[in-house]
Specification:
single chain, alpha/beta, four-stranded parallel sheet, about 35% helix, elongated
Length: about 350
């Protein structure tokens, strides 16, 4: 019988984490459980960081705030000597009976291995503004990030129109272009470049020149940080990898805008939104999804359905296995949703 559960947030922060923490806490308290907040993701269960004892008062207002009150880190216990055993020992020392892990492919990948290899009682909640987790139609933070990108492009149009200047807006998206595609649609971008389909630089220039010749004085281009020209590597700012083997991406927007300016002979500037995409208050949708996911995660723990993840599937809040969630990345289906000639969202969805 469960008496105490813990909750942690790992990986990059985003709006929607605090609503999930609040929901987990409120639901657990209503079921007679104690709730411990683990600081800095998996790091908090390795370095013996002082946990937070969560109660109704401490989480009352947090669903309106961005980020995470628990802090976060990109920590991989499986890359550390005796890391998994340290996690298990710390859970034992804190009398933690079960754990809710909120994160993306890396954080939930660790949760999956801990469950499979060490039988750690854990349930996941999906979070990533890249939207690249499988087994769920939604991940916390995504719609909030889409809103930030859309509003940024709306503001950028003022100077684009005033100076007849084109812009390349670089957004996050290492392997998946969901954020670029959906924010590009929302903002009415003229071109969207995603990691799933390497683009032809000359075709980009051709399309921009055609727009200018057709009385369009400027173009707005959205590019995911992981997008690359055909035959070229992705743009990186550092080849140093984190504990999950990821290099730091950046520069795709700069390189593309420079190429456009030199070959299309138009004024073109880059804008890298960076961590702004992760900031600010969660959207109404992220607040609701955090609420729903938190409830399902607690119910799963109490029911002993470990090794699972809260999921939105076909319009219903349900549970999926962590193995299914982290088995492969969920990327854009270019055949169904992407026009590979115009570098835009497809204009037909029924065919």
């Amino acid at each position: 019988m469960l008496k105490t559960i813990a909750v942690l947030t790992g990986g990059g922060d985003c709006p929607g984490l605090n609503p999930a923490i609040k929901s987990v806490t409120q639901k657990a308290l209503s079921m007679g459980l104690k709730v411990i907040g683990i600081r800095s993701g998996w790091q908090g269960l390795i370095d013996d960081l002082n946990p937070l004892h969560l109660d109704a008062k401490s989480v009352h207002h947090i669903d309106r705030e961005g980020g995470t009150i628990l802090q976060s880190s990109r920590t991989n216990p499986f890359k550390m000597k005796d890391g998994p055993n340290a996690v298990i020992k710390r859970m034992h020392d804190l009398n933690i009976d079960a754990l809710v892990a909120i994160g993306g492919e890396d954080t939930l990948g660790v949760a999956h291995r801990l469950y499979c290899d060490f039988k750690v009682p854990v349930v996941g909640i999906p979070k990533t503004i890249d939207g690249d987790l499988s087994a769920t139609d939604y991940c916390l933070g995504f719609e909030s990030a889409v809103t930030v990108v859309t509003e940024s492009i709306d503001r950028l149009r003022s100077t684009a129109q005033s100076h007849e200047r084109s812009f390349v807006v670089e957004v996050m998206g290492r392997h998946a272009g969901h954020l670029a595609l959906k924010s590009g649609i929302s903002a009415g971008a003229d071109m969207i470049l995603i990691p799933e389909y390497p683009f032809d630089l000359d075709q980009v220039v051709k399309l921009i020149i055609a727009r200018k010749n057709n009385t369009h004085p400027y173009s707005m281009i959205v590019i995911a940080e992981g997008a690359r020209p055909a035959g070229s590597d992705i743009s990186v700012t550092s080849k140093t990898t984190d504990s999950f083997g990821h290099i730091r991406l950046g520069g795709a927007g700069f390189h593309l805008s420079e190429y456009i300016e030199n070959h299309a002979h138009i004024d073109c500037r880059p804008l890298i939104l960076g961590h702004l995409q992760r900031g600010g208050s969660p959207s109404a949708f992220d607040r609701r999804m955090g609420h729903h996911f938190g409830i399902v995660a607690c119910e799963a723990l109490v029911a002993g359905k470990f090794g699972t993840m809260a999921s939105l599937s076909e319009g219903r809040i349900t549970l999926k296995s962590l193995s299914e969630a982290v088995k492969e990345l969920h990327v854009v289906d270019t055949k169904k949703y992407y026009d590979t000639e115009l570098y835009q969202a497809k204009s037909s969805l029924l065919s």
